[in-house]
């Protein structure tokens, strides 16, 4: 018999209840992406929530766990253009955003687009490139546009960045600047597959590429409609106050020297609204906030001392969730 101390808390139980979507669009998306990336429905679900919320995704993983396959599968299900750029120390900002050059035949300067000009940009091993190249990503992730030689060029809509980073102790890596981390709506990890799923992967590869079986579910126009529906999800005053109470708890936590910014508060609300929509509701509940809070908060917090400790950050988020009183909903 399970001991009482091993039972999930009320908040953990509420969070687990959110782990499967009710919305038929998301269920079909999960089914199609699952053909190519097996056994990772929980992570894929949160990635889809981030896309519905209009945000960007940071995946922290070792090489070879299926990040590129995942990005391609998402682009196929939504019929989005997709590009991949491998970040190394010699990648330049112009490789990402583009540049102007003189065209002798036309006797004028023309703009050459960089890799960012697509619907879904896979920025692979983002923490191996220079700070100068990092800065090129800030405007495009925040504004959906790039400015070259004083001219602003809008990016295709939707524009989604799925960036990957190797764990910080890997050779050639450096911690992303706080301003860069804050641009990502969530940080997630695919992790290694379980033995059964890895066996299924090996078998599937014997008869072709599973990506070829992924079918389109919607397109960019349909995604825009869904995003507008997410925006319309109702948030009561008590839940606005709850979000602010959670962020303030991190700003005043003794173990943190950098808490959650107002951008983090907005990110939590956006992800929670996407969670509510995925559950078939047009109103927010505290459960939605609890469900997405660790993925939104952990990468935005800076602990005292040096280095990065994801486990310690996750423990602090759990503590904040346990000690912040749940609101009365209107």
The poorly predicted ranges are 1-8
Coarse morphology: globular
Q: Count of helical segments?
A: 13
Q: Please write the CATH class name of the largest domain.
A: Alpha Beta
Our measurement of the CA-to-CA distance between the termini, rounded to an integer number of angstroms, reads: 39 Å
Please name the CATH architecture of the largest domain. 3-Layer(aba) Sandwich
C-alpha-based Rg, rounded: 21 Å
SSE pattern, N- to C-terminal = HHHEHEHEEEHEEEHEHHHEHHEH
Q: Determine the fraction of residues in helical runs and give it as a percent range.
A: 40-55%
**How many domain regions?**
2
Tell me about the biggest sheet?
Answer: 5 strands, parallel
Give me the CATH superfamily of the largest domain.
P-loop containing nucleotide triphosphate hydrolases
Sheet with the most strands: spatial strand order = 2-5-8-1-9
What is shown here, in short?
The chain has 330 residues and is of the alpha/beta class. It has helices at 10-16, 24-34, 41-52, 67-77, 93-97, 131-143, 178-181, 195-204, 220-231, 237-251, 262-278, 286-297, 310-323; strands at 57-60, 82-86, 98-103, 108-113, 120-124, 145-148, 151-154, 160-165, 186-188, 256-258, 302-303. It folds into 2 domains: 22-231, Rossmann fold (3-Layer(aba) Sandwich); 233-330, Helicase, Ruva Protein, domain 3.
Molecular structure report:
- It contains 13 helices and eleven strands.
- Helix content is 43%, strand content 15%.
- By secondary structure, it is of the alpha/beta class.
- Residues 1-8 have low confidence and may be disordered.
- The protein has two domains: 22-231, Rossmann fold (3-Layer(aba) Sandwich); 233-330, Magnesium chelatase subunit I, C-Terminal domain (Helicase, Ruva Protein, domain 3, Orthogonal Bundle).
């Amino acid at each position: 018999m399970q001991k009482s101390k091993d039972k999930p808390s009320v908040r953990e139980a509420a969070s687990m209840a959110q782990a499967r979507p009710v919305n038929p669009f998301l269920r079909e998306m999960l089914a199609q992406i699952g053909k190519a990336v097996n056994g990772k429905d929980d992570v894929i679900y949160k990635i889809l929530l981030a896309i519905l919320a209009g945000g960007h995704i940071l995946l922290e993983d070792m090489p070879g766990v299926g990040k590129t396959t995942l990005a391609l599968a998402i682009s196929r299900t939504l019929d989005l253009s997709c590009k991949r750029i491998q970040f190394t120390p010699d990648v330049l900002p112009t490789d990402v955003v583009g540049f102007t050059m003189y065209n002798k035949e036309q006797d004028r300067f023309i703009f050459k687009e960089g890799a960012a000009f697509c619907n879904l940009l896979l920025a692979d091993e983002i923490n191996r490139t220079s700070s100068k190249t990092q800065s090129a990503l800030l405007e495009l992730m925040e504004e959906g546009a790039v400015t070259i030689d004083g001219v602003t060029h809008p990016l295709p809509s939707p524009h989604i960045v799925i960036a990957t980073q190797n764990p910080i102790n890997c050779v050639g890596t450096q911690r992303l600047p706080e301003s860069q981390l804050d641009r990502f709506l969530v940080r997630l990890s695919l992790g290694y597959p379980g033995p059964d799923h890895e066996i299924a992967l090996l078998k599937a590869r014997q008869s072709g590429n599973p990506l070829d079986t992924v079918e389109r579910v919607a397109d960019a126009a349909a995604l825009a409609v869904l995003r507008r529906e997410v925006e319309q999800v109702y948030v009561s005053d008590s839940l606005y106050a709850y979000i602010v109470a959670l962020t303030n708890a991190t700003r005043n936590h003794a173990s943190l020297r950098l808490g959650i910014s107002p951008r983090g508060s907005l990110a939590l609300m956006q992800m929670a609204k996407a969670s509510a929509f995925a559950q078939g509701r047009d109103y927010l509940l505290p459960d939605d906030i609890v469900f997405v809070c660790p993925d939104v908060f952990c990468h935005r917090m800076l602990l005292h001392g040096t280095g990065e400790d994801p486990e310690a950050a996750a423990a602090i988020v759990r503590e904040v969730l346990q000690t912040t009183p749940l609101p009365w909903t209107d």
